[in-house]
Design brief:
With 218 residues, this protein is of the alpha/beta class. 39% of the residues lie in helices and 19% in strands. The protein is built from eight helices and nine strands.
Length: 218
């Protein structure tokens, strides 16, 4: 099993939250301003990168032709104003035709009611009924640099998505050490809750002083 699949499997089995993963990453990894359309979904998966630019979703349609099954479709934006990137139709194509694991859009979306009625796992920056223009557009060096940087960071990384938002585990952090840190974090969380809820300790003794590490307190 590839290391990326081992990490995904372990996070899913433990149902690690975005908060826990962010802590493991040293308080980093959050995709700022991106939240779920439906709070009940939980998603962990390998990212495939897509980018919309110049207020057009034409490039998105083109790039989605190469979307692989089982991936988290991460849609980035570059020079997109207050327009939604896509809505129910494209979400349906991504989830049902291309068999993606879920959708994360670093931008606005439309058709919230339709997407929620279909219960698609979608995270985005917000909602607007006004969509991007479906016109063919040309890139430029700045857009190319943005896409190259976005693809280098996101493609092959892991997205952890829940009611709080989205945290990305970069490719260079996906290793056996990360799995060890995941196990440590879960054990620590269990210990903290046990100390506060069952032993009656305050959070200062538990979180700051970590008195549970003293053998006489166990």
């Amino acid at each position: 099993m590839k290391i990326v699949d081992k990490v995904i499997e372990r996070i899913e089995k433990l149902k690690m939250s975005t908060e826990e993963i962010g802590d493991i990453l040293g308080k980093s990894g959050v995709v700022n301003g991106v939240y779920p359309l439906n709070d009940k979904h939980y998603l962990v998966g390998e990212i495939q990168y897509v980018c919309a630019y110049n207020n057009s979703n034409w490039p998105v349609h083109e790039q989605l032709r190469d979307l692989h099954a089982g991936k988290v479709c991460f849609v980035d934006t570059c020079f997109v104003e207050d327009y939604s990137v896509f809505g129910e139709l494209v979400s349906s194509y991504i989830m049902l035709n291309k068999k993606a694991k879920g959708i994360v859009v670093n931008g606005l979306m439309r058709d919230k009611a339709g997407i929620m009625a279909r219960d698609f796992p979608v995270w985005c920056s917000g909602i607007s009924p006004i969509g991007c223009f479906n016109v063919q557009v040309n890139g430029n060096p700045e857009i190319s640099r943005h896409m190259d940087a976005g693809r280098a960071y996101y493609e092959g990384s892991i997205a952890v998505c829940d009611a709080s938002g989205v945290v990305v585990i970069p490719k260079d952090r996906i290793n056996e050490e990360l799995i060890e840190r995941i196990e440590f974090m879960r054990d620590q969380e269990r210990m903290w809750f046990d100390c506060v809820e069952n032993k009656g300790w305050d959070t200062y003794d538990t979180v700051c002083l970590k008195k549970y590490l003293q053998k006489e307190q166990l």
